[in-house]
Recover the amino acids of this structure.
């Protein structure tokens, strides 16, 4: 598949259908999808099961050289926790669907040499904006925003 962001969007939509937060992610290396996942904080009651973390978990244990050749596709700018995992594993390239509704730790990633590519995908933006309007309390919980 030439654009793995579409697979990440499918994962985000899966989360939404399950009653969760519409964020999806896919880990790819050398044209092969290694893992895909979606935010399951609501579905599984797990505070750290963001889309990126789910994709990494579903990829399973991989060698450091695989991570260092991989790209992580995510529908939304990664938060501090997910960015920390990206840095820890040495993933060199992150493709972000959008960062208009939330800008995570992109500057941290860039400062550590990660190639960050933001697409501003309309589908990603629309799905997140609609979710945030309908469920502001869940969104605030997800990003640890005290209102």
């Amino acid at each position: 598949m030439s654009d793995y962001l579409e697979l990440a969007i499918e994962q985000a939509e899966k989360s939404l259908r399950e009653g969760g937060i519409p964020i999806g992610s896919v880990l790819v290396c050398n044209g092969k999808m290694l893992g895909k996942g979606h935010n399951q904080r609501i579905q599984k009651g797990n505070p750290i099961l963001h889309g990126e973390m789910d994709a990494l978990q579903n990829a399973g244990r991989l060698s450091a050289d695989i991570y260092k050749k991989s790209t992580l596709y995510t529908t939304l700018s990664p938060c501090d926790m997910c960015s920390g995992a990206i840095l820890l594993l040495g993933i060199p390239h992150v493709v972000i669907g959008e960062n208009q509704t939330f800008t995570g730790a992109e500057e941290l990633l860039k400062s550590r040499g990660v190639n960050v590519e933001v697409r501003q995908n309309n589908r990603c933006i629309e799905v997140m904006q609609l979710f945030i309007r309908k469920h502001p309390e869940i969104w605030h919980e997800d990003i640890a925003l005290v209102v």
About this structure: The beta strands are 24-29, 32-38, 70-74, 93-96, 115-118. The first strand starts at residue 24 and ends at 29.
